[in-house]
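chain below, 394 aa
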Amino acid sequence: MTASTAPAVPFASPASRDGAPFAREAQRYDALLLAGFGGPEGQDDVIPFLRNVTRGRGIPDERLEEVAHHYRHFGGVSPINAQNRALKAALEAEIARRGIDLPVYWGNRNWAPYLSDAVTDAARNGHARLLAFATSAYSSFSSCRQYREDFARVLDETALGDVVTIDKIRQFFDHPGFVDAFVDGVVQALRGFFDEGTSVEGIRVLFTTHSIPTEDARRSGPRDVDFGDEGAYGAQHRAVASAVMDRVRADEPRAAEVAWELVFQSRSGPASQPWLEPDICDRIAELPAEGVRAVAIVPVGFVSDHMEVMWDLDNEALEAASEAGLSAVRTPTPGIDPAFVSGIVDLVEERMAATPPEERASAVGLGPWYDVCRPGCCENVRAGFKPAAAGLAP
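prediction:
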């Protein structure tokens, strides 16, 4: 294949290979590929799993063991694989309920079942045209582009690149099924605070997400759009938090004047490297001086209760709140909430039908996001651009 005949989007289906931001022709898919992060399922898995996560960085096992204690606290088992099994089953049930002929394959980036196994199994079963759903709602290197690089790497390593195509469902931060899945938990938390006699001024809603290096944040999203210092990553989270609060206030009028803010967690880089701030625990410690007496902690950056929710929030953040003398509630993640599961299948049908962007469901002003990632989306500052599926080069 010459450069002049090569598709603008490598490894793409016929309807998406020309590089248009939104699919313009209806497209048949053979299967849905559920792409996850992966996690250990026993004590012996912990260090090998962390080696996979940090591959190429030369981090010795002694340093990995400092992180391993989070997993060892839970018997070496991350909940993320069980959650993806549950999500896979829920998706299969909803797909079947709608009468769609679309099997679901599940593969992970960092632990079994691996993406390479899932793609190989799909191809062996004659399912060569795959639509991928990655369990990350927002734009950044680790939450979008790295999955796209994984797809390209797997197709190259398995020598299936001339047989299998992989498209990726658009980033779904803005979809009502994702946004609405957070609302009831926030409403219930605020009602509990009101019932305890806490004033509106004494309540704060902290929407929390994974911190990333500020340089990565600036490069998140397409490079020809200025989203500010936090890039598309920060802008998308703030838009979702605002939309959640709009729905909360509609359901609970007493919440009309409750203040909210976006905070960050789970920083893992060197102290010399700037990351998005404020850290959730640092912010919690400051709140009593501002008259705050109760906090609702909303894990808006996460689709399920994996390790960085269970440890960093349910242990560290709630402990910080207790030390600050604050009442605190951590609200649920979407998990397999029916609205979330239904929303994913809505996105599948949207892509298959090539629904025009103006007709797509979006709960925030930044959506709907692109079907095909734009050039330069979500650059990895440290490693640069690697080949990636489901987007234009680089």
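The chain has two domains: 31-39+78-172+337-359, 182-330. The mean pLDDT is 96.
thats it, cya
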